[in-house]
Amino acid sequence: DAGVTQSPTHLIKTRGQQVTLRCSPISGHKSVSWYQQVLGQGPQFIFQYYEKEERGRGNFPDRFSARQFPNYSSELNVNALLLGDSALYLCASSLELTNEKLFFGSGTQLSVL
Amino acid sequence: AQSVSQHNHHVILSEAASLELGCNYSYGGTVNLFWYVQYPGQHLQLLLKYFSGDPLVKGIKGFEAEFIKSKFSFNLRKPSVQWSDTAEYFCAVNARGRRALTFGSGTRLQVQP
What we know:
- The structure holds 2 protein chains of 2 kinds.
- Chain A is mostly beta strands.
- Helices cover about 0% and strands about 50% of the residues of chain A.
- Chain A has no helices and 11 strands.
- By secondary structure, chain B is mainly beta.
- Helices cover about 0% and strands about 50% of the residues of chain B.
- Chain B contains no helices and 12 strands.
- In chain B, the strands form 3 sheets. In chain B, strands 2, 5, 6, 10, 11 and 12 form a 6-stranded mixed sheet that branches. Chain B has a 4-stranded antiparallel sheet with strand order 3-9-8-7, with no helix packed on it. A two-stranded antiparallel ribbon of chain B has the order 1-4.
- Chain B is globular, with a radius of gyration of 13 Å.
- Chain B starts with a strand and ends with a strand.
- The interface between A and B is medium-sized, with 25 and 22 residues.
């Protein structure tokens, strides 16, 4: 079975631009979470979606938004990019709403110049 | 707000040495506790978890962790490490009823043959 897939794997943007990151969860998983991992730090929670509804939001500005589609895939959008948004963005899926076991993708490395 | 501290940022051991990685969390309520591991070139994966019951939990590949509530700690141990244990280890906390996993900054373990 395929794991969590994320696209693209790498992305370079300039300040002020907008970016969309994509995630496909493991088949049958209804929950998708997004995390930001800055170099040298642990992942930081951004959003959790379950059954197409936002179920949790971390301490991130409104420039960050996300959505989940009927097939449970998800997109993370970041507007008005700042240099500090450079990070690895991880998507994780789970069967249900609880975080009992998260399955992570390999991430999208975003560089903002 | 919950937080997680991992005191060892980089640990170097020889094969067959014993391992203990420290993890302390800050949160007054009931928590779920996790250790995730990231092997070189691979995605984050669950090593073990504690939700309730026996505070000594066993995970994959011979790892175990002990939850000591009075010390707000959840240290990871392995009696004898192997070269294949070289990886980055993340401790994470999830307050009951909350969506976010809060991760520590990680410990890079290097096992020398």
